[in-house]
Amino acid sequence: MRFAEHLKSLEISGTRVFGDSITAGFNTSRAELAWPALFASAVEGFPIRNHAIPGTVLQGSKLVDGKPSLNNGIGRFVQALLDRPHEDAILILYGYNDARYTAAPETMNAAGFVRDYSRILKGLIAAGHGQGIAIGSPLYSGCRVLGWKRRVHRPDPPGL
Fold first, then answer.
1. Per-position b or e across 120-140, b if 16+ CB within 10 A of its CB
2. From the centroid of its chain, how far is CA 104?
3. Quick one: CA dihedral 59, 63, 66, 71, positive or negative?
4. pLDDT tens for each residue of the chain, 160 residues long
5. What are the two backbone dihedrals, phi and then psi, of residue 135, each rounded to the nearest 5 degrees?
6. Residue 7 forms beta bridges with which residues?
């Protein structure tokens, strides 16, 4: 079953999206080409509540200045996604900025990304959203989280 069909079977009435600039639709040539808009059209127009903030990271780890990034995902997911009871699906796409930030590798790293993503997912599941969550991560950050060697254009995962 496709995710959209699954959401319809759960009688989901809307969608909340959460992430960084990719999720916000930043730099798309037309707003309707941003992936949240494409998803909305694929599920026949579920209302989209976009809680993405360009330039943010998911993890609350300390940056090179010793402070966490403003508006990080772990610090704002409760307000953005659990602010009130709702029947929305939750789509999360975070990771590109986390993978690109290399100035503080001791704190801002794959372990911190996994730790904070897990906390978000556990919080959403505990709040009853387990059946309506879809997560994603750009290939670039997914490769970093999995410990694959990165290249600028195309990482080569082991065994592929």
1. bbeebeeeebeebbbbbbbeb
2. 21
3. negative
4. 577 777 778 878 788 999 998 888 877 778 788 888 888 787 776 788 889 999 999 999 999 999 999 999 999 999 999 876 667 889 999 988 888 888 898 999 888 998 999 999 999 999 888 888 888 766 544 444 445 444 433 333 333 3
5. -115, 155
6. none
- The pLDDT assigned to 159 comes to 36
Only one residue has tokens 């579920």, namely 46
- Identify residue 146 by its one-letter amino acid code: L
d(CA 92, CA 56): 13
CA dist 129 and 98 (Å) reads: 25
The contacts of residue 50 (CB under 8 Å, 6+ apart) are 16, 17, 23, 24, 25, 36
**Nearby residues of 98 by Cβ (< 8 Å), 6 or more positions away:** 57, 58, 59, 108, 113, 141, 144
**3-state DSSP call for residue 127?**
coil
Angle at 41 between CA 51 and CA 89, to 5 degrees: 45
Q: What is the pLDDT of residue 123?
A: 93
Q: What Rg, from alpha-carbon coordinates, does the chain have? A: 16
- Angle between helix 73-81 and 110-126 (nearest 10): 20
Tokens of 156: 């080569």
CA distance 132 to 7: 7
